[in-house]
């Protein structure tokens, strides 16, 4: 969060509603603030399935490639079972706006299927 302005850091620290963090991660103009919102979501005490769904929704909705990549990075290493990750990624892959992120998702799926 080094490139996140102090005011935005304070705002993010005050937010307790996960959905509000999703909205910031999707819509804020500063990609570093978006990523910081994702990082705060990761640290929240939420059921892992809900956390992964929220963060994967950011990957689908954002118009910033670096934010989509950051969100997918979490989805691929979350504590969910690999079967659940595969289902989430397969459902999301066609909705991702960025070819580079889709390719990373495809690589992850291929590696999983190879075993």
Written account of the structure:
The structure is a single chain. With 115 residues, the protein is mainly α. The chain has one domain (6-114). The chain is 75% helix and 0% strand. It has 7 helices and no strands. The longest helix has 16 residues, at 99-114. The chain is globular, with a radius of gyration of 14 Å. The N and C termini lie far apart (35 Å). The model has no long low-confidence stretch (mean pLDDT 93).
The major pleated sheet works out as: none
Count of DSSP strands: 0
Task: Label the structural class.
Answer: mainly alpha
The radius of gyration is: 14 Å
Tally of individual domains? 1
Number of helices in the DSSP assignment: 7
How would the blueprint of this fold be written?
Blueprint (H helix, E strand, L loop, with lengths): L5 H9 L3 H10 L3 H13 L4 H14 L3 H13 L4 H11 L6 H16 L1
Helix pairs in contact: 1-3, 2-3, 2-4, 3-5, 4-5, 5-7
Give a nutshell description of this structure.
The chain contains seven helices and no strands. It has 115 residues and is mainly α. It has one domain.
Annotation keywords:
115 residues, mainly alpha, 0% strand
């Amino acid at each position: 969060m080094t490139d996140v302005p102090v005011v935005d850091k304070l705002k993010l620290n005050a937010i307790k509603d996960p959905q509000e963090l999703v909205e910031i991660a999707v819509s804020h103009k500063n990609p570093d603030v978006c990523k910081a919102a994702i990082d705060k979501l990761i640290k929240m005490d939420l059921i892992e399935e809900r956390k992964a769904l929220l963060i994967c929704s950011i990957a689908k909705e954002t118009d910033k490639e670096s934010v989509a990549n950051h969100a997918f990075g979490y989805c691929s290493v979350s504590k969910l079972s690999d079967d659940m990750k595969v289902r989430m990624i397969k459902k999301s892959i066609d909705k991702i706006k960025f070819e580079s992120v889709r390719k990373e998702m495809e690589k992850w799926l291929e590696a999983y299927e190879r075993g």
